[in-house]
Amino acid sequence: MAENAHVNANVGRWYGFAETYDRYRPQPPTAVVDLLKMLAQKPPETVVDLGAGTGLSTRIWAGHARQVIGIEPNPDMRKEAALQTDSHDVVYRAGLSTSTGLEDASVDIVTISQALHWMEPQPTFVEVARILRPEGVFAAYDCDWPPAVHWEAEIAYNECMARAIEVEGRLGLRENVTQWAKDEHLGRIQASGQFRYVREVTLHSIEMGNADRLVGLATSQARVSRPLMNGATEDELGLTNLRDVARRTLGDEPRPWYFSYRVRIGVK
């Protein structure tokens, strides 16, 4: 029961703002595709993206495998993913990282983007290893928040995130929500005993953004959107200050944003 409670709470955090999520979140760098294809040592037949969300990390594989499967438990996110995807080789299915419904040794590459910290680690790694073929490749990656863009805007963004956590807790919106520390991902993958080779690499990506996108990026975080949907004000959450600082420092003209990604790799 306890496990189901935290799974339901973690999945439930992402209802109600899928369109915002897809519009403002970054897409993973194409270098992820190049790196994992190289490590797989042959063109992949099947790629699976766990915790696919709105498909940002799934769609980058279009045209690189015979079939690409995004596994996502939240129907709100799956619906948006389908709306945003026009590639015939990319499909989305309901499922969990611990229960994909896929066959043993049927997958060449498994990815988890911006989501491993919401997943029960050891059962997830066991399921990943089960569906991977021998010498198949697993990669879990996250970008650092916020992107490097302007020091004042970044400070205001971080202050907004800190205030949002406080408000979310005060409103009782974190009940049963469970997270696992991102800086411990690599150690847990290594300790799982499921992979013969484990390492971390860093990649970088440049996207364009302005003041409105930085505010949108903040509202793409559940810790901000959920309080907003439950009566919290933008002043309480620090969004008003973030918007003011972003407009002053970034303005309306898009400029380069620098995202840093930490990619944890395991080879079965």
Outline the structure in words:
It is a single chain. The protein has 268 residues and is α/β, with parallel strands linked by helices. It has helices at 2-12, 18-24, 30-40, 75-84, 121-131, 151-170, 185-191, 211-219, 222-229, 234-237, 239-249; strands at 46-50, 67-71, 90-93, 107-113, 132-143, 197-209, 255-267. A seven-stranded mixed β-sheet has the order 3-2-1-4-5-7-6, sandwiched between helices.
Average pLDDT, rounded to a whole number, is 96
E-strand count: 7
Give, in order, the helices and strands: HHHEEHEEHEHHEHHHHE
Number of helices: 11
Largest sheet: 7 strands, mixed
Structural class based on helices, strands and sheet pairing: alpha/beta
Stretches with pLDDT under 50, minimum 5 residues = none
Brief overview, please?
This protein has 268 residues and is α/β, with parallel strands linked by helices.
Throw out a few tags for this protein.
268 residues; alpha/beta; seven-stranded mixed β-sheet; 11 helices
Write the layout of secondary structure elements.
Layout: H1 2-12, H2 18-24, H3 30-40, E1 46-50, E2 67-71, H4 75-84, E3 90-93, E4 107-113, H5 121-131, E5 132-143, H6 151-170, H7 185-191, E6 197-209, H8 211-219, H9 222-229, H10 234-237, H11 239-249, E7 255-267
Parallel strand pairs: 1-2, 1-4, 2-3, 4-5
Antiparallel strand pairs: 5-7, 6-7
Helix pairs in contact: 2-8, 6-9, 6-11, 8-11
